[in-house]
Amino acid sequence: MTQTPDPTPLERTFTYRLHLLQKVSDLETQQRYPGAVGLSLSDGRCLTAIGRFESLSVKDLARYANLNKSQASRAAQALVTLGLVSKRDSQQDGRGVTLTLTAAGRKACARAMQLVHERNAEIVGCLTPTEQTQLSALLDRLVAHNHGLALAHGAADASEPEDEDATSAL
């Protein structure tokens, strides 16, 4: 039995529109991060992930910042070089390191989080408070559902993209 293709045009599909929203919102955020925080968007995301979940490994940073491990490693080193993050040998893993914010990193993280909250308010500003709550609950359900699908399909770690293109695939 041949299945009839879905007549929905590409630009009306959920994945296309979600990707478009991400691209449009990231473009604005990328333009504002250097002035507000003095960092690129990806370094800022790593800084806020370290601030929220510290002390953490590079592998954990990759998971929380939605990057692959090599991207997280480069970002962590850039933040260390800037004096925003300290890197210490891990007590649990002799080969690993633990990342924590420095005093300067805490100040930069506070500025980054202020920008995160401003951008989130702008992005969902066209929605009523009730719609914002509903959207948040729906996003939580979609994330949980898709993590389950990824694990069911054999993904080793459903929270870490395999490569840079994985985060932008339709």
What's the CATH H-level homologous superfamily?
A: Winged helix-like DNA-binding domain superfamily/Winged helix DNA-binding domain
Main sheet summary = 2 strands, antiparallel
Oligomer: single chain
Distance between the termini: 27 Å
Low-confidence stretches: 160-170
Counting helices, strands and paired strands, the structural category is mainly alpha
The helix-strand sequence is HHHHEEHH
Shape annotation: globular
What is the percent of helical residues? 55-70%
Strands of the largest sheet, in order across it? 1-2
β-strand number: 2
| CATH architecture call | Orthogonal Bundle
Strand content: 5-15%
Mean pLDDT: 87
- Total number of helices: 6
Pfam families: MarR_2 (PF12802)
Keywords: DNA-binding, Transcription, Transcription regulation
Organism: Hylemonella gracilis ATCC 19624
Protein name: MarR family transcriptional regulator
Describe this structure in words.
- By secondary structure, the chain is mainly alpha-helical.
- It has one domain: Winged helix-like DNA-binding domain superfamily/Winged helix DNA-binding domain (Arc Repressor Mutant, subunit A, Orthogonal Bundle).
- The protein is built from six helices and two strands; from the N terminus they run ααααββαα.
- The chain has helices at 14-37, 41-53, 58-65, 69-81, 103-123, 129-152, and strands at residues 85-89, 97-101.
- Strands 1-2 form a two-stranded antiparallel ribbon.
- Helix 2 (41-53) crosses helix 4 and helix 3 (58-65) packs across helix 4.
- The radius of gyration is 18 Å and the shape is globular.
- The two termini are 27 Å apart.
- Pfam families: MarR_2.
- Residues 11-144 form the HTH marR-type domain.
- One of its GO terms (biological process) is response to stress.
- This is MarR family transcriptional regulator.
